[in-house]
Structures are given as structure tokens and as C-alpha cells.
Here is the input.
Amino acid sequence: MARRSDHNREELYALAMQAARDIAVHDGLKGLTARNIAKRIGYSAGTLYNLFKNLDEIALHVNAGTLDQLHDRLGEVALSGKPKKDIRQLLDAYLDFIGGNDRLWSLLFDHKLPDGTPLPDWYRARIARVLSLLEAALAPLFPEPDHPECQLSARVLWSSLHGICQLANADKLEIVSDEDTRALAHALVENYLAGLKARLG
Amino acid sequence: MARRSDHNREELYALAMQAARDIAVHDGLKGLTARNIAKRIGYSAGTLYNLFKNLDEIALHVNAGTLDQLHDRLGEVALSGKPKKDIRQLLDAYLDFIGGNDRLWSLLFDHKLPDGTPLPDWYRARIARVLSLLEAALAPLFPEPDHPECQLSARVLWSSLHGICQLANADKLEIVSDEDTRALAHALVENYLAGLKARLG
DNA sequence: TCATTTATTGAACGCTGTTCAGTTTATATA
DNA sequence: TATATAAACTGAACAGCGTTCAATAAATGA
Here is the structure.
């Protein structure tokens, strides 16, 4: 029942986002509640609704940050122009990233907007930015630089990898070890690329 | 606050399961609440807890039913012994199934047990049963009938397909049409199989 | 007929997202 | 400087959630 000047709007926004990230890292989606975030920054839950439309928006921003992190990590892989080598390196960077950020990575796919709510454009751009890294690594395989099958293959690999990691993580694949997950991911990439080469060359 | 003899335990169980399925079909996971299911069968929420340990168990049983349905549908595909042909047919059956049962299919992957809770064995068996259909179709590609890479490839295809359909469904792939989803799925299968053939033969 | 077991319920607990009247403070204006 | 306006913030409230449980009533066994 007061107005405080501890933090201005931007500071508060940053505080809330950091709190949300911290919670997501430690407790995942289930801990990401308005009252939880608010308590962590010393404000009431209602205050969050001055900064964000709703909780979904907060989750979306956390996820956008994760996509950016992933983009930066994958961006560190220096492309050699040899797709097989480059994709392998991207894959390892991807697996390392999700190994070290498993709760954030889960949130990326566990959080869903209500039915019929489209993803905002600024969020879609984050996805496209990651996909473009894959496209760049795959491009040398195709005759033209922006062959439609290049975009398609980037999406196949991205979503397939997601499926493998998600089901393996949820223990829904009748597999045993973390090594098995890596083996699945590598088999996907190796065979898919070998298939591309065989069919195109 | 009474005892009723409208239904015995088994009938009640069946009623609750059917109600849960109906709700899942129409409203997905978000509509699958104890009070919702109870209202639909004319009992109170507490009664459900005589039949099931908790809501998760109900969701698990709905999902087991969906896996059985999927298994039956895929089982209708007559295997020719030609992996490419057979896998293509299985893929089409799979895509048809999830096209006609999208909410049930989503529940299969949206619902998660609390952290650290293992899937019960009877549920894992349902997954294994579906995977074995894929293994049977892939088997002719490998020298021995139960080559380890055959099991592995079945898991790669199953989880990759899941990833493609899930991300496409959530509109997280920057794709446009349902046809694009089919194209991704077919690209996965075609290239993966071509790769297997190239590497093994 | 009476005791025991079983089925069922409604109320309750502690959560959830979200809204909002009410209050306090900062800022702009006169 | 005094006053009006705007902005920030809170606590309580609402309707919902999963789950538990004392109380009740009916069915069953003795």
C-alpha cells in the first residue's frame, strides 16, 4: 500500500527476470509461480502484473534468453565448410549445452501458451536465428546456397534432436544411460547426413 | 454422503476412464481435472481417489490406451520385408493417427509425472510394444535379426518423429502448413534410411 | 437384529493465476 | 510552496486446482 523508489521500472524488470531464471534453473516450470518470483525480489505478486501481461510472458522471456544462450554457444563453433564435421561439432555443443542447462532446456519445450495463442514474432525470430546456424552448416551439401531442402533439413535435425533428448530425458525410450542418448543423437545425424549425401551426390 | 449401488467398482473405473478420455479428446490436459471427471460421471471428486492413486495415474491410463490404439493401428500395416516400403507405410499410419487424435497424442507427451517418479513397468511395456513394431520393419536392413543398431534406429525414428510433430504442432518450427510437417517427417525417414543403407551395405 | 465393513460426500487445506480498490508516494502544475 | 494528478504497490479477494478426511449411510455378515 505504498509507492517505493527502491528500483525503477527497468531495474525491477531485470530483477524479476533474473529471479524467474533462477527459479527455473532450480525448480523448473512447476516452481515458476507469480508468488514465488515476487517473494524472491521482495515485492508482491501484483507488481509483476505491472511489468508483464501474465506469467506466460515471463516464461516466454526466460525461454528467449535460453535460445539466445544456445545461439551464442552454437555460434562459437567455427564452420569449416565440411557439413559432416560442422554438424557433428554443433551436435556436441548442443548436447553439452542441454547437459549443463537441463532445466532451462526443458522449460523451452514444457511451457506452452494457451490454445490458439500464437507465439509472438520476437520469439519466433529467436528460433529462426538458431535454425539459421544449422542451415549455414548444411548449406555446402546443396547445389544452391538456399536450396529449400537445406532449410527443411535444418528443421528436421533440430526437431528430431529435440524429440530424442526430450523422450530420453523423460525416460520414455527404454534406454539406460546418458551415453545411449548421445548414441541416438549421433545415429540420427550420421545417418541423416549420409542419406542426404547418397541422395544428392 | 451415502453409499450407492449404481455401479460396482469395475463399472465405476470404466466410467471414469471413459470420461477422462472424452475430456482429453475435447479439452486436452488442461481440462483433465478431478472435479471435471467426477462431474461427468455423476460422482464427487473424492470417489476418484478410491479408484486411482491420483490424477497422474488417470492420465497415465489414458495414455496407455492411446499407445494401445496406436499399436493396433500400426499393427494393421502388413510388413513386406522391404524396410523402405514398410517404414513409409508405418509413417503414414502414424501421421494419420495423430492427425485424427491430436489431443490424445499431445497428452501422451504433455503429461509428466512429478520429478523423480519413474514410469511404471506396465506403462513402459506399452512403449516397448510400439517400438518393437518399428524394429520389425527395420530388421531386414541388418545382418543379424536383433542387431543393436536396429533397436537404436527404431528409437531414433520414434523420438525424432515425435519431436517433429510436437514442434510443428506448437508452431515452433517456422513452417507454414500441415503439408510441411509431412514433408519434414518424410525427409527424416527417407534420409535416415538411405543413410543406413549407404553405411551398412 | 445388530455390528462391521465399505462407499461416498462435502468441507477443508494450501496452493494457483489474476484482478482491483485502496493507499502512499513522486511528480507536475499553479 | 501548496495542491492536483499520476504512478507504483499491496493485500484481499475470486475462482479454480489436487488431495485428504471426518462424517454418514448403505450393504453385508453374524
Remarks:
- The radius of gyration of chain B is 20 Å.
- The mean pLDDT of chain B is 96.
- Chain B touches chain A through 47 residues (CB under 8 Å).
